[in-house]
Design goal:
The protein is an alpha/beta fold. The protein contains eight helices and eleven strands. A hairpin with a 2-residue loop joins strand 10 and strand 11. Helix 7 runs antiparallel to helix 8. The chain starts with a strand and ends in a 5-residue tail after the last helix.
């Protein structure tokens, strides 16, 4: 089995198109999306239209959920923009997405952790920076999913493959379209990243799971120009160099 895994598109249609084109050339058996689809100052409606047209199943991310559950005054700027662009039918569809998906008997897909879409599975931020979590903390966050051979997660935008001894392989495909967000204060203290559109291919061979991680160039100047038009100049660096200065 070969499964393409995408996550954290954040309305970046240009990046999503590049990723889907690249995936098509690899002919996986299926694609799974780990959520946070539209909260970015880019193309929320067009992003959802493309995902729906392709029939790609998606987990619900924390930002997808917040568009329905949080009052407008508690939403970040990107969430407010998405809300204004989408309209009620799309907001309802996003909220009705499942919190987790069992892709098959072995692969469990979540956004953050199996029980909390707004907690990082593999990282801590207590120091004001994003750093790998201790093993015990990851195991506690996995909960009952510790028995699954594979857990797919997003949320941190940090591409990684982690093997828990005696437990699952944890795959984070990275972010399709938002290396860092100027709306997030944590972004100001993150390590340098890159502007590439990221995804992963999960493959089962000889009874074992492995993963390939991809970082694709795409027209990030197009995305930056769009974000600057509807948001602020801070998005230029976020989308073209992968950091906030």
């Amino acid at each position: 089995m070969r499964l393409a895994v995408i996550s954290d598109i954040h309305a970046n249609l240009a990046a999503l198109e590049a990723v889907l084109d690249d995936i098509a050339g690899k002919s996986p058996d299926a694609i799974i999306n780990l959520g946070d689809n539209v909260s970015g100052p880019l193309w929320p409606r067009e992003t959802l239209e493309l995902l729906e047209a392709r029939g790609i199943p998606s987990v619900r991310g924390n930002h997808d959920r917040w568009l329905r559950e949080r009052p407008v005054e508690r939403l970040g700027d990107s969430d407010r923009f998405a809300l204004s662009e989408l309209g009620e039918p799309w907001v309802t569809k996003l909220h009705e997405l499942p919190a987790t998906i069992d892709v098959n008997a072995e692969v469990h897909a979540v956004h953050g952790t199996p029980t909390d879409d707004n907690t990082y599975l593999l990282e801590d931020t207590d120091s004001g920076r994003m750093a790998p979590s201790p093993r015990d903390a990851v195991i506690e966050r996995l909960g009952a999913a510790i028995t699954r051979p594979v857990v797919l997660c997003g949320h941190s935008h940090r591409q990684s493959v982690t093997q828990i001894p005696g437990g699952p392989l944890i795959l984070n495909p990275g972010t399709v379209g938002c290396p860092v967000s100027p709306d997030n204060k944590l972004a100001l203290s993150l390590e340098f990243r890159s502007p590439h559109a990221r995804y992963a291919i999960l493959t089962r061979r000889f009874g074992q799971w492995g993963a390939e991680l991809f970082a694709l160039p795409y027209d990030w100047q197009r995305a930056a120009a769009r974000a600057e038009t509807v948001a602020s100049s801070a998005w230029h660096d976020a989308l073209t160099i992968g950091s906030v200065t």
